[in-house]
């Protein structure tokens, strides 16, 4: 039995994939800017570019809020994917700097992006994980 309100359907995989690709593309632009224009320096402009990615994320979550609620773990999945793509890109970039002998470029701004963003966002992701597990909403979802 389908208990969704009339006119609301689950968000399709195609839209979730498009979201993931847009986030990955936006983060790629940020990392290319850092590598090629900012000479591997995390600066104000790179953070402004990253804020555009965050604005897309917020817009998508707002725009699809009702459809996301109709699919088990959709919001949580997007949170995890976004965390992995954004933070993973910074860690990969820093790892490549160290591997190429340019670890000295990982200054305070880099450390803020690496540790601050990963830890604070990670704490939020942990709370989201706990909330998802405690809500037990997955038990009521029809296959």
Overall shape: it is: elongated
Question: What is the first-to-last residue Cα distance?
Answer: 10 Å
Low-confidence stretches: none
What is the makeup of the main sheet? none
- Helices and strands, in order, run as HHHHH
What average pLDDT do the residues reach?
89
Q: Over all CA atoms, what is the radius of gyration?
A: 18 Å
Oligomeric status of the shown chains? single chain
Strand content: under 5%
Q: Determine the structural class based on helices, strands and strand pairing.
A: mainly alpha
Q: Count the domains.
A: 1
Query: What is the count of β-strands?
Result: 0
Separate helix tally = 5
Helix content: over 70%
Description:
It is built from five helices and no strands. With 143 residues, it is an all-alpha fold. The chain has one domain. Helix 1 (13-37) packs parallel to helix 4 (74-99). The model has no long low-confidence stretch (mean pLDDT 89).
